[in-house]
Specification:
The structure is a homotetramer. Helix content of chain A is about 35%, strand content about 20%. The first copy, chain A, is of the alpha/beta class and about 170 residues long. At the B-D interface, loops of B face loops of D.
C-alpha cells in the first residue's frame, strides 16, 4: 500500500484546463506544472477528468503530491475517463457544470492552462469569488474592473506567481 | 388581483447583466429589451436582482410579460434587492454562483447585456451547454472553436436575432 | 397557440413524489391534487419527470394551470421522460439530485405524495428551509424539534391545508 | 510544519450530524468515531462545521487523520464556525444545502450520528445515490424498498460495520 506525506492544512492549488488533449508542448507543461505544485507540498485540485486535467494530475501524483478531483458525475452514473487514474480523492458531485463553482472557490490560487468555455467559466467564477487567477495560454477576455488576474508565459513563471500569491497569504 | 396571459409552453429568453446600475443608455436599452421580449409573448428569465436584471424585468413586467428570477439566495437568507419587484416567479436556489448554471442552461436563447465576471461566467456556461448567446456590450473574450455566439450593436438587432434563433427552433 | 391566464406573482405549490407509477388510487389522487391546485390559481412546481410528477402535472395542466418542472438534466443530456408533456416551463439544472434543493426551497408550500428517498430528501430539505410540508402517504420519519409538517389522509384535506398555509401568508 | 501520512487513493468515510452540540455522551461518541476512522487510515469527510461535525473531526485530526470539510459557504462569505479548526481540506461550495448532495455521494460509506433534517436529507440522498449508510442515533424513518442501511447501537459497532462495508469494496 503506497503512502504519501501531506502537510497539515496545506495550500490547495487549482489547475483548470480542457478535457481534450492539447499539443505535446502544452501537455508537457501541464505535467511539469503538476510536478512543481507537488514538490512545493501543495495539494492539487482539478476537475478530475482527461486531457489537461489528467496531465497535471499525473505530474503531481508521480511527484508524491495529493490530488483532488472534483467530478461532474457520481458513482451511480460513471463517466468515461472520470476520475482519471491520478486522482487520490474523487469528490463526487453529480452536478455537471455546477461543479465548476467549487473548482473556482476552493483553491487558494487557480492556474488556467489552455481550455475552452468550461475553463473560461471557471476563470470568471474565480475572479468573482476573489480567488487569484494565473493564466497560461487561457482564453483571452477583458473584464472592466480590478481583479486578481495575472497572465504568464511559462510554467516557471506560473510557479513563481503561485509562490508569490501564497507567500502573501502566509503573511496576512 | 392583476392577471396576465401566457402561451402554453412558451419560449424562455434569458437576459444576463450586472447587478450594478449601468449608464442611463444601457438601463434604457435593458428596459426596451425586456419590453420587446414580453411583446413577442416570450417569458423572461434573469438572475432576479438589481441593476440590469431589474431594468430588463421592469420592461417585461410592465409590458405584461411573465418574469422568472433565478435567485442566489433562499427565503431563510433574505438578500437585499433579491428578488426585485418585477419578478413573478422567484426560483429560490440558495446556491449563490451555482445558480448561474441554471441561467445558462434554461433559456432557449440568452442575451448578455453588459456585466462583469458573473455575466462572463454565464456566457461561457451557456456556450458550453449549447444555448445560443447574443451579446450586447458584454465583456469581450475569445474562445477557439465553433460556438453559437453573435455580437450585436443595438436592442433592435438583439430582438431580430432572438426572432431568428427561435424561428429556427420552431422549424426544427 | 393555446393560452392560459396567470395571476401576477402567484403562489407556487410544490408537489413531490416518486418517478415511478404508483397504484391507480395514488395516481388519481395526484391528478386531482394538480387539478385542485390549478383551479385555485396557483402555479404547480414538480421535479418535471414521470410517475407522480407527471400525474399531478397532467391534472394541473388540463385544468389550465401553469406548470414548472425543475429538471435534473440539461438539454445537452436528454433524460427519458424529462420533462413530461405537461410542463410549461422546464427549468434545466443539469444538477441531478442537487435540484431537489430548489424543489424544497422555491414553493410557498410543498405536498409530498408517496415516494422514496428522493421525496424524503425533499421533505427534509424543505423542513430545514422553513417551507411548510403537507404529507399524503409520504415516507414516515421522525425529527425531534418543531417543524411545519402536517400529515393528511386525502386530497381534499391536502387542498384545505394548502389554503390554510397560503391564507396565513396573505395576512402576514 | 506538522505533517501526516496518507494512503494513496484512501477510503473516504463520511460522518454527518447536527451542527449543534449534543449530549456529552454523543459528543464523546463522535470523537471516538473520528479517532477510529483515522486509525484505520481512512480519510474523514464531514460538513466542516460545529457540533457533531467538529467533534468527529477533532477525533480524526488528533489521531493523525486527514479531514475534509465540504462547506456551505465560500471565502467571500465567512460563516461562523465554518470550517472548524480540525479541517485540513476545506472544500468551498457556496451552495448552502446543495452541498449535502456532495456529502451524500462522495464517501465510500456514510455514518449518520444524531442530527436533524439536514442529516436526514443526507441519509436520504445517500440511499438514493447507492452510498451505504450506517445510522447511530439518527432520525428514524421508513422507506419502502431495498436500501443499504444499517442501524447500530455503539461506536464500536459502527466501526465494525465500516470495516465490513469497505472490505466488500476491496474484494469486488
Amino acid at each position: 500500500m503506497s503512502k504519501l506525506t501531506v502537510t497539515r492544512k496545506p495550500f490547495i492549488v487549482g489547475v483548470m484546463g480542457s478535457h481534450r488533449d492539447e499539443s505535446n508542448t502544452v501537455m508537457k507543461e501541464a505535467r511539469r506544472l503538476g510536478e512543481g505544485i507537488a514538490m512545493r507540498g501543495h495539494v492539487l485540485l482539478t476537475g478530475g477528468g482527461p486531457g489537461i486535467m489528467r496531465a497535471v494530475s499525473e505530474g503531481a501524483y508521480l511527484a508524491g503530491g495529493l490530488v483532488i478531483g472534483v467530478l461532474p458525475n457520481d458513482r451511480r452514473h460513471p463517466l468515461e475517463k472520470y476520475p482519471n487514474e491520478f486522482i487520490d480523492l474523487p469528490i463526487y458531485t453529480g452536478m455537471s457544470d455546477a461543479r465548476n463553482v467549487i473548482n473556482a472557490k476552493t483553491p487558494h490560487v487557480l492556474v488556467a492552462l489552455s481550455g475552452g468555455p468550461g475553463t473560461l467559466s471557471e476563470i470568471a467564477l474565480a475572479l468573482r469569488s476573489g480567488t487569484p487567477v494565473i493564466s497560461l495560454h487561457a482564453p483571452p477576455f477583458e473584464i472592466p474592473g480590478d481583479y486578481d488576474f495575472t497572465a504568464v508565459d511559462s510554467v516557471e513563471e506560473a510557479l513563481r506567481e503561485i509562490d508569490r500569491v501564497l507567500d502573501k497569504l502566509l503573511i496576512s
